Amino acid sequence: MNKKIYLLIAALAAVMTTNAQNMTTSPQIKTANGIVQGVTETSGIRSFKGIPFAKPPVGDLRWKAPQPADNWSGVLKADHFGPQAMQQPLYSDMIFRSNGKSEDCLYLNVWTPAKAAGEKLPVLVYFYGGGFRTGDGSEGRYDGESMAKKGIVALTVNYRLGVFGFMAHPELTKESPQHASGNYGLMDLHAALLWVKKNIAAFGGDPDKVTIAGESAGSMAVSAQMASPLSKGLFRGAIAESGALLGNLSPTPLATAEQAGVAFAAKVKAASVADLRKIPADSLLKWGASGRFGCTVDGYFLPQQPQEIFAAGKQMHVALLAGWNSAEGDYKSILGRNVAATPENYKAAIQRLYPDKAAEVLQQYPATTKEEIIASGNALASDRFIAFSTWKLIDMQARTQSAPVYRYLYTRPRPKLATEAEAPTGAVHSAEIEYAMGNLHYNKVYNWTPEDLKTAQVMHDFFANFIKTGNPNANGLPQWDTIQGKGTKKVMVLDADSKGLPDNTVARYALMEGLIK
After folding, report:
1. Catalytic residue among 215, 241, 328, 432
2. Which member of 47, 98, 181, 216 is catalytic?
């Protein structure tokens, strides 16, 4: 009898131990829509992947503002990434961990430390890049575990892309309660921020300490959220890496975007929006791949051009950390692919590009040696592509509000690959992401050097500090000054030897502003 009791007690203890282990490795959190069950990673960080933050934008909800997610009963297993948005494979360096693509794509992912009782942690919400045509929150370079190790609740968010996320059309404008169309992808991100406001406390985050961040199109989306009156109060800080909807990247007027939608409907032989909604997603994707659908001044999410909103000081007055890379563009795009980097060839190229302003351009982008040609060509190509718009965001945010603004120039080239004939001449577009997010280990393509690891440590610390406090500075790091106020304006040059250097580009960007008008 005693033996039977002993065995029963032992069995109960084993069950209780197993249940306790399961609770530890499969943490559960109650959200406004239902219970989600995540995973405890080997690091101790808890991850919750594939949480729906809006209804699937399919059927009649295609090309409509995101609707609140439905509630569910029971426990939703949040142990894998949701599907990526509908998109074509455009960039070989985008490696997704999600299982395929779907029009049903509005999911987000959360990484959070094991929270102490009552703790309210700062929050990072990261928007992926990809030209509003491709990208996914499952990419390893955006993974939130490294940020969570620093005491931050980190999220990545999926949003609609291409024709699904940005097509405007007169019928869509007419059926909208706000008489607007387009910008559905931007509204998806806004819906995710509303979800964060409502739910992030359950994950240990502080809804009043949210920072949004993104790179390229994700950075443009950051500027859009800053400009939109809908997003006021949803975040206190912003990080913009290479891109903004200002200057040469300003959104399209609604009437122009609507006509592009009409032309697209004619191309696919759809007589109405109802017909367009009947086209299968895969077919629509194939047709839409040949068109470019971008952000629109829709009169609702963006009531005016963002540049006008910033000029009037109507944008969100939040701390901003922003900058770009030294080789966002390639000097060969200025010279020509097979043209030698000589002063004569460079000057001829500038004369072709700017026949009436060549002398002024050469003064700001000089070319007396091959090294100077490469540096000036990279700088000019970068400005023409995406750097000028980012500078415009930084400049206007600093001029029209008092919250601190920090500007960087990222200069660390990636290590040379064996397949490359020449070593990189600068930091190319998107190169900084793994460094900033602490995720070099997810990129197996490069043999990272001690200098890369040092750059990543400093940059990751800067970003984490900014997310926590609105200020990137801390003991042991180079001093990073804001660009406001009197005295010498300094830019943080991020590399293995990061340091603040005087900003000598005022005349350069004054010239660039005149060139793009």
Report:
1. 328
2. 216
Domain range annotation of the chain? 29-316, 323-516
Instruction: Using DSSP, state whether 13 is helix, strand or coil.
Output: helix
Three-state SS letters, 82-102: CCECCCCCCCCCCCCCCCCEC
| Predicted confidence (pLDDT) per residue in 167-218, tens digit | 999 999 999 999 999 999 999 999 999 999 999 999 999 999 999 999 999 9
AA letter at 435: Y
Contacts of 147 (CB under 8 A, 6+ apart): 111, 124, 154, 437, 438, 464, 467
Residue 488, burial from CB neighbour count under 10 angstroms (0-12, 13-18, 19+): exposed
**Can 176 be counted among the known catalytic residues?**
no
Fold of 29-316: Rossmann fold (3.40.50)
Instruction: Decide: residue 95, CB within 10 A, 0-12 exposed, 13-18 middle, 19+ buried.
Output: middle
C-alpha gyration radius of the chain: 24
Closest CA to 206 of 236, 227, 232, 230: 236
Q: What is the mean predicted confidence (pLDDT) over 382-408? A: 97
How many C-beta atoms surround the C-beta of residue 7 within 10 A? 10
Q: What is the pLDDT of residue 16?
A: 43
Superfamily of chain region 323-516: Alpha/Beta hydrolase fold, catalytic domain (3.40.50.1820)
pTM over 0.90: yes
Residue found under tokens 């992401």: 433
What pLDDT sits at residue 377?
97
Instruction: Give the chain's length.
Output: 517
pLDDT score recorded for residue 15: 41
Active site residue 139: no
According to DSSP, the β-strands at 46-52 and 107-112 are antiparallel
- In this chain, the answer to whether the domains covering 29-316 and 323-516 adopt an identical fold is yes
Average pLDDT over residues 434-454: 97
